[in-house]
Write a structure and sequence with these properties.
- The complex is a heterodimer of chains A (about 325) and B (about 300).
- Chain A is mainly alpha-helical and about 325 residues long.
- Helices cover about 75% and strands about 0% of the residues of chain A.
- Chain A has helices at about 1-50, 60-65, 70-80, 80-100, 105-115, 120-130, 135-145, 155-160, 170-200, 205-210, 215-240, 250-255, 260-265, 265-275, 280-310.
- The longest helix of chain B has about 45 residues, at about 1-45.
- Chain B has 15 helices and no strands.
- Chain B is mainly alpha-helical and about 300 residues long.
- The radius of gyration of chain B is 27 Å and the shape is globular.
- Chain B has helices spanning about 1-45, 50-55, 70-75, 80-110, 115-130, 135-145, 150-155, 160-175, 175-185, 190-200, 205-220, 220-225, 235-250, 255-285, 285-304.
- Chain B starts with a helix and ends with a helix.
- Classes of the chains: A mainly alpha (about 325), B mainly alpha (about 300).
- At the A-B interface, helix 1, helix 5, helix 6, helix 7 and helix 8 of A face helix 1, helix 4, helix 5, helix 6 and helix 10 of B.
Chain lengths: ~325, ~300
């Protein structure tokens, strides 16, 4: 009896306390409201709508009126011939760009950190950051123009050097390379920023000590710089893995053509085609949901592994 | 004496090793810089050169037949002007909304005592990892009658959670609780404090947010592709894309060679210029963009 009373008393005081803090913070809550309205409508609204992946959606019947079909759309996707292609391309491009693209910014940042000539350093930085701000449309136009079979600069140079001209964009076997290396060209410079920030936080006394001990530049990099930025590297790696299945839709879409489609069709472009061109809303949503779920599983796994191994994690 | 000599020898050897290291560093960085720079440089010189020289690869290092014909031709193109105007409208309106919403929600989230802090942050973070996806969003936009309207380009993705985190981190360390308490004692409400103290003290982070969002709007292609139908509403990125596709079609069409050649040269001349023209605002603002984007990364990385 007494215990019950205490519990209800505690509950009472907690709700009272909440009321009090709520009253105190009321204006702060109100400041959050406009942004939250947008988030609820345009982020949580579609999350509610994702249930059409398990229904047979038709616009006339609406989301609620459309019949449930369970996992039928997922089964259809897994059994379709495109499943293997789009999954292979998505994973292939992603894995390739992770593997090839991840080390470069680290190396460049370490080298920039060692340059004593400030003007040289600034110039290099100003130049290598620039491509990051180029739009995907311009980047893809550059790629198509430069690699154009007859008039592109690359083929003109190849011809001058006595090689055969190559129709790069028509070769599926070259698509991954073009996609990944143009991405490295565009983003390596910008991705150094965060490592340079981490490097600038290193205690200068460490360098002094290393100098007195007679360490060479190279030894400084291996023994001071790298260990210092390792947590940053791990965090960025986790975050990058969380986007593993998000191979840029715009870029793949803009570089696609009927000749390279076997290598350039990725999950997101397939979702677009099935959904908006063929208007198979439920099927397309199911494919998109599959992508999201794989992403979440990946980030949880990598985060868990990293927490166990290095005590560095996102959460 | 002998010991000193050995020391000295060691020192010379060390500094020698470092000198090699230095040289290699400069060469590698210089090489990388050239790789990044060359394609950009090529676009610029190609846009000012005689199209025929460009097509036959005679402008690899220096421009040839300097002229501004392609720019004259570009400025005669109505679609480009319209695209420019549309993109400016989308970018300014969109950025205004983005920055206002972001600052408004970032401030409460930066107050340690704010009772809704954890819940609201969780609500935002979920959207970073889980989304309904393309089609559910498309259905929603249709249902709200936003498709093919000006507003669809503004309201979708009204706040970026990453930017909220950056702004929150900035406000946590730049708006002290002492200042807030002092204002409260003077009878200043939280609204007034936000409007008259927080915003004026946050100019640096507002600049970061403006540039982050503005560059995002300016370069966006996908939203227009999915939600706009009428060409007169197209943003610049869609316009320049369609110009490029047109020229590709001409390339394929091989009926009359003379006609084709003339058409192709004209179209080709425009391509490089179009890329420059579409990037002009970003180029003009590049010094600011570089500075404030880096600032944003720095603030954000304190948290990470």
């Amino acid at each position: 009896m007494k215990g019950k009373n205490e519990v209800s008393l505690a509950r009472n005081s907690r709700s009272k306390r909440f009321k009090k803090t709520f009253q105190r913070d009321i204006q702060l809550y109100l400041l959050c409201v406009p942004a939250l309205i947008f988030v609820f409508i345009f982020n949580y609204g579609p999350m509610y709508g994702v249930q059409i992946a398990f229904r047979d959606f038709s616009a006339g019947k609406g989301i609620w009126g459309s019949p449930w079909v369970g996992l039928a759309h997922f089964r259809r996707f897994f059994n379709s011939p495109q499943f293997k292609t789009v999954l292979k391309n998505t994973l292939g491009i992603s894995f390739y760009s992770l593997l090839a693209g991840f080390p470069f910014p680290i190396i460049i940042a370490l080298l920039l950190n060692q340059t004593q000539n400030m003007r040289f350093k600034k110039t290099v930085q100003t130049v290598i950051y620039a491509p990051h701000f180029i739009s995907v449309v311009v980047l893809c136009s550059m790629i198509t123009l430069f690699l154009s079979p007859n008039t592109g600069i690359v083929n003109n140079m190849l011809a001058k050097l006595g090689f055969e001209k190559v129709f790069f964009m028509a070769k599926p076997e070259l698509f991954y390379d073009i996609f990944v290396w143009s991405g490295i060209w565009q983003n390596t410079g910008w991705n150094t920023v965060i490592y340079i920030a981490a490097l600038s936080a290193i205690n200068p006394e460490l360098y002094e000590a290393a100098k007195i001990d007679g360490a060479t530049r190279f030894q400084t990099i291996i023994n001071i710089d790298l260990p210092s930025i390792l947590p940053t590297i791990v965090i960025l790696f986790i975050m990058r893995t969380g986007r593993f299945m998000d191979v840029g839709f715009q870029k793949a879409f803009l570089l696609q053509n009927p000749l390279n489609i076997t290598a350039s069709e990725i999950i997101s472009t397939y979702v677009y085609k099935v959904g908006l061109i063929d208007a198979q809303f439920s099927y397309s949503t199911a494919i998109g949901l599959f992508n999201t779920v794989v992403n979440i599983i990946l980030i949880l796994t990598v985060n868990g592994i990293s927490r166990r191994l290095s005590e560095t994690s996102l959460w | 004496m002998a010991k000193a000599k050995v020391e000295e020898g060691k020192k010379i050897k060390k500094s020698h090793e470092d000198k090699i290291f230095d040289t290699v560093t400069y060469i590698l960085l210089g090489f990388f810089m050239l790789i990044v720079l060359y394609p950009l440089y090529f676009i610029v010189i190609a846009s000012f050169s005689d199209p025929y020289a460009v097509l036959t690869g005679k402008t690899a290092l220096l421009p040839k037949g300097l002229n501004v014909k392609s720019y004259v031709r570009i400025f005669q193109e109505d679609t480009i002007w319209r695209g420019y105007l549309n993109s400016i409208l989308y970018t300014t309106t969109g950025t205004l909304l983005n920055v206002t919403l972001t600052m408004m929600i970032a401030y409460p989230l930066s107050r340690k005592y704010f009772s809704g802090r954890k819940t609201i942050m969780t609500i935002l973070l979920i959207t970073m990892y889980f989304s309904g996806g393309l089609i559910p969003t498309y259905i929603l936009v249709n249902k709200l009658n936003l498709r093919d309207t000006f507003w669809v380009m503004i309201v979708l993705g009204a706040i970026s959670v990453y930017n909220v985190i950056v702004a929150r981190t900035f406000l946590e360390s730049n708006i002290s609780s002492e200042l807030e308490e002092a204002a409260q004692i003077d009878g200043c409400s939280q609204f007034r404090f936000f409007g008259y103290m927080v915003v004026p003290l946050s100019k640096a982070i507002i600049a970061v947010l403006v540039l982050y969002y503005a560059v995002g709007h300016w370069n966006d292609y996908m939203r227009g592709l999915i939600y706009l139908d009428k060409p007169e509403k197209y943003p610049l990125q869609m316009v320049i894309r369609s110009i490029l596709i047109q020229t590709q079609m001409i390339e394929k069409d091989t009926i009359d060679i003379e006609e084709l050649n003339a058409q192709m040269k004209l179209a080709e001349a425009m391509k490089y210029g179009v890329m420059i023209v579409s990037s002009v605002p970003v180029l003009l603002l590049y010094p600011f963009i570089q500075k404030y984007f880096i600032k944003g990364v720095m603030i954000g990385s304190v948290k990470g």
